[in-house]
Specification:
By secondary structure, the protein is mainly α. The chain is built from 23 helices and eight strands. The chain has helices at about 5-15, 20-40, 75-80, 120-130, 140-155, 165-175, 180-190, 210-225, 230-245, 250-265, 275-280, 285-310, 330, 350-370, 380-400, 415-435, 455-480, 490-505, 510-530, 535-550, 555-560, 570-575, 615-620, and strands spanning about 85-90, 95, 335, 345, 440, 450, 580, 590-595. Helix 8 (about 210-225) runs antiparallel to helix 9 (about 230-245), helix 14 (about 350-370) runs parallel beside helix 16 and helix 17 (about 455-480) crosses helix 19.
Length: about 625
């Protein structure tokens, strides 16, 4: 025991709250005080939201609808069960049926006689690949190269594949339970986006074709295997969703993400399956893999929800699965980089599971609020109360992160790359929470006559987080390389760039200069990321198009890499359109086709005529004084 005075030891351990946390609490107090004042002035009538309000604390079911393995089962209990049940079908797979389905009453669910075994489906897929000459042969050296990239840069952030079990199955047992041909093809197809190897491209001169052949092979196998999906099918489909977004095929990526979630529901991965381990229906490894895959799908669903602004497939009340165990080996495995920009960086522990658990917690804190606020029909006071409450929750979440998940206090010392990604998402959540209430002021209808409202707490929060995002990209680029960053980082840079672009119109010269410096960092980051992810180029073109429509200064144009006299119409036509559906023989064709103003589905409006409907487009991002929800 230490002999120092107890009071002194306490002082050393307790850190004062951050300035940002104090400001968030102050804003929350002001909102609540305003509510109290309004309530006191009313005649007793109060606005009350539905009991299922998103402001309620999240909770998961304590008891799952796991069938009783005893010889006696109460019919009353079965019929009154509200959650449904996991059942084993004739195909040997576990299936989930909700309480509204009568199949939930059966221990063993009947499967149609036409159901084909997974082995037979794999054989049919292999035969088709041979007939169509789509089978891809990968050397051991190239396969190991791609797997190393996958484990280091992709799987540590969007954790979907358990490395130890995958490699054991791939090299030793060959059971297909953890490393099926479909999953291997999907892993390699996505990992190819991180590689500069020419042999991975269908067109040696086009970087955007890396992994195309592997992806086509995976899609063909999935066509058959989706008839009787397994856990590896879920994993592969989720990875294909990311891979399609990488080539800027957002509709297909979105569809694969939804397929993965539905397959996971079908297999009951969203439920606590510990009872099935106790009764011997599944092994402990199978249960843990299922848990990891479920939460991987959950994170992917929320990332798509934020990145595309579309509804989530997965809702909180449906989940009873436990979070991945902290005893999992991935938490304690070392991490090292093979970065081409310097000496390898080695961390004794990856803290991968801790990062996943915290990412899930972040989305639980923020996703429902971000879903409700944009289209909410509630009164302004209720929305402001929700904004301040959620903001305080985010800051508390950030403060309470374990030390292993905090950013390094020194810019000279690197942080694990997947922890950088977590902090990017924290700041994106803050921006999206406050952005609808950032006010703008204008003198005329001229597009260059507006600037952000001064004194807005919402703008201040957006600005702080945007500069933090810029700083994280600068550090990631310094210690690693943006050639090796997961695709979800693109939306973070895109979101922050829009706020910084607005700040370049500020009347405060210091704010303007600081915004331009950070905007330049993000524009360069989007350019660097486009080597792996075509979606990044699309985001950069979008920001440049907004810069033209907002008629920002020449300095802001320069920060975005827009050369003086560059043809604005060409960029405008490019950004309005959607990605052209290319066949493999036209992979080097233009990525953009003009098909209307709503094709670019990222919550950013674009002009298709020479006129400027100010309220129609700026109002979707920010508000003028007098708009509902304005903070000015």
């Amino acid at each position: 025991m230490a002999n120092g005075p107890p009071a002194q030891r306490v002082i050393q351990l307790v850190r004062p709250p951050s300035k940002r946390y104090v400001e968030a609490l102050q804003e929350r107090i002001r909102t609540l005080e305003a509510q109290i004042e309004r309530f006191q002035n009313t005649t007793g009538t109060q606005e009350r939201g539905p009991s299922s309000s998103i402001e309620d604390n999240y909770s998961t079911s304590e008891g799952d609808s796991i069938p009783d393995d005893s010889s006696y089962r109460s019919p009353i209990k079965d019929i009154s069960d509200r959650l449904g049940a996991l059942n084993i079908g004739e195909d040997g797979q576990i299936h989930y049926f909700g309480s509204r389905s009568n199949f939930s009453l059966l221990k063993n669910s009947p499967v149609a006689s036409s159901t084909v075994s997974s082995h037979e489906l794999q054989k049919q897929a292999a035969d088709t690949l041979d007939q169509l000459n789509l089978r891809v042969e990968v050397s051991d050296e190239l396969r190991n190269h791609l797997l190393d990239l996958f484990w280091s840069w992709q799987n540590t952030w969007q954790y979907l594949v358990v490395k130890e079990l995958f490699l054991e199955d791939l090299y030793i047992t060959h059971s297909g339970r953890y490393a099926s041909p479909l999953l291997l093809s999907a892993v390699l197809a996505l990992a190819a986006r991180y590689s500069d190897r020419i042999e991975l491209r269908t067109d040696p001169l086009d970087q955007n074709t890396a992994g195309n052949a592997l992806a086509e092979q995976a899609k063909m196998i999935l066509f058959y295997e989706s008839q009787a999906p397994k856990v590896t099918t879920v994993q592969a489909t989720a990875l294909l969703g990311l891979r399609e977004i990488a080539t800027d095929k957002e509709a297909l990526g979105w569809m694969y993400c939804g397929m993965a979630a539905r397959m996971a529901f079908n297999l009951g991965l969203h439920l606590d399956r510990s009872h099935w381990v106790d009764t011997g229906h599944i092994t402990k490894d199978e249960a843990e893999v299922g848990t990891i895959v479920w939460w991987g799908c959950y994170v992917l669903d929320k990332l798509f929800n934020i990145g595309l602004g579309r509804p989530s497939t997965i809702q909180e009340h449906e989940i009873s699965a436990k979070l991945p165990s902290m005893e999992h080996g991935a938490e304690y495995e070392s991490w090292h980089s093979e970065s081409p920009i310097g000496e390898p960086i080695v961390f004794p522990r990856s803290h991968q599971v801790s990062n996943v658990r915290s990412t899930v917690q972040l989305f639980r804190v923020t996703s429902s609020a971000l879903d409700e606020i944009p289209g909410s029909q509630h009164a302004k006071s209720r929305i402001m109360e929700l904004v301040t409450k959620t903001h305080v929750n985010i800051i508390e979440f950030q403060i309470n992160l374990p030390s292993c998940l905090r950013l390094s206090p020194s810019p000279l010392a690197p942080t694990l790359p997947h922890i950088y990604l977590l902090h990017l998402q924290i700041h994106v959540a803050i921006i999206l929470l406050h952005r609808p209430f950032v006010g703008v002021q204008r003198k005329t209808l001229d597009p260059g006559s507006f600037h952000p409202s001064t004194g807005s707490s919402h703008l201040k929060e957006c600005s702080q987080s945007s500069h933090s995002i810029s700083n994280i990209f600068r550090l990631y680029s310094k210690h690693y390389t943006l050639r090796r960053i997961p695709i979800s980082a693109i939306h973070c840079a895109f979101t922050a760039s829009i706020i910084l672009l607005l700040e370049t119109t500020s009347t405060d010269s210091k704010d303007r200069d600081r915004a331009m410096a950070s905007l330049k960092v993000l524009a360069e980051a989007l350019t660097d990321m486009s080597a792996a992810w075509a979606w990044s180029q699309r985001a950069l073109l979008a920001v440049r198009q907004l810069a033209r429509e907002w008629a920002v200064s020449e300095d802001a144009f320069s920060a975005l890499g827009i050369r003086k006299g560059e043809d604005s119409q060409a960029t405008g036509n490019a950004i309005i359109g959607t990605t052209q559906a290319l066949d493999d023989n036209e992979a080097s064709s233009s990525l953009w086709v003009a098909e209307g103003p709503h094709c670019f589905d990222m919550d950013i409006p674009f002009m298709t005529s020479d006129g400027l409907d100010y309220q129609g487009w700026i109002g979707t991002l920010f508000t003028e004084p007098g708009y509902p929800g304005d903070a000015a």
